[in-house]
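SAMPLE LOG
Freezer: B-3
Tube label: C17
Construct: single chain, 173 aa
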Amino acid sequence: MKATMLVPVEEYLRTAYRPDRDYVDGEVLERNVGERDHSKLQREFILYLGTRAKKWGIHVFPEQRVQVSPQRFRIPDICVVVGPEPEEQIFRRPPFICIEVLSKDDSLMSMQNRIDDYLKFGVPYVWVVNPVDRRAWSYSSEGSKEVKDGVLRTENPSIEVSLAEVFAGLDER
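STRUCTURE (predicted):
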């Protein structure tokens, strides 16, 4: 068993990690990023949401630090904020949507812990998308479901993301 060295939150916040890392109860955790499939799908979501940002009144942030509790910082692949653009460097208010793109090394338990952190923090929608089999799941305080009709949705405001359009960008570029 590997010994874990706990890091004070102040040290985590003043240290630059490449790529950035989550911080959970004193432990600095690596994120699974950096592979082409993950990167391309992240890019397509950013482009899709970004071109509709003004219409929907949203702001899109890739890999933004979010403080989900006093001792936990998560870095969603993408977060979406409704309303005015936040001025804070680290988000301390829940984004409207957190999007996680699965990587081959993500475990079910680690992803579920991330989802739980977002939902406990008050994020209304968490979307998890698999770039390999092109499946998606939507999580909210009301539960979770696989997206079978090909559209990720929110309410208040109403946002609809066509997975077919997002995935089409993977094949075209």
